[in-house]
Amino acid sequence: MSSIRCYILDDEPMAVALLSDYVNKSPQLTLVGSSTSALQALTDLQQLEVDLCFIDIQMPELTGLQIMSLLGRKTYFIITSAYNQYALEGYEHNVIDYLLKPVTYERFFKSIQKATPILSMPITKEEPKKTSQENFLFVKTDGKHIKVQYEDLKYVEGLKDYLVFHLANEKIITLSTLKEMEDKLPSILFIRVHKSYIINKQHLDSIERNRLYIDKAIVPIGETYKKTVLGQLIKE
Q1: Taking the domain 4-131, which CATH number applies?
Q2: Which of 20, 30, 43, 151 is the most exposed place for a label (fewest CB within 10 A)?
Q3: From CA 125, how far away is CA 109, in angstroms rounded?
């Protein structure tokens, strides 16, 4: 595809400068505008041809969620925020990914890799993309498919070729691998913390050394995942 036209909105000038640097060093991206003012950005985004907007959530004048709502399906968004409680609300809009501050270039680049195939297909107002709407998945078990809402899924446990979905009041067992499930679950909500576990970040109660507490369950943090997991979760 042609170069991805990007816009950056953040009320912190340093954040705009950092993301601008990331965009400029990425050959597949072109920066067409940026602003620290939500009202100015709303005008720009209505007038400019923008494929992808990096947008903060908590800002004066208008929040990022309000701007996305006002723009409708005009462009795609990658949220940049120091907080993760807006993840589910992002599903109401064309949100591709959720970057937690401070954003590293490595995480930024992964987000662009995720966005590229989605941006290769045009947005249609009549048929919004499923990737921005789905907040659930279907799990096959006992010859049927059960709908599992992301907000109800606490964590996924891998047992060889099987997975156990731990929900509030039940467990669902399905034939699959943790790698396959890691690719399906949205990274804005879920994170792999161990070779045998993926957790829902919104259900995490506390962290103690190499253990994560989710209600009465204790989930270990794998040594190979420790730096990434702790770095991300503690910053959230």
Answers
A1: 3.40.50.2300
A2: 43
A3: 28
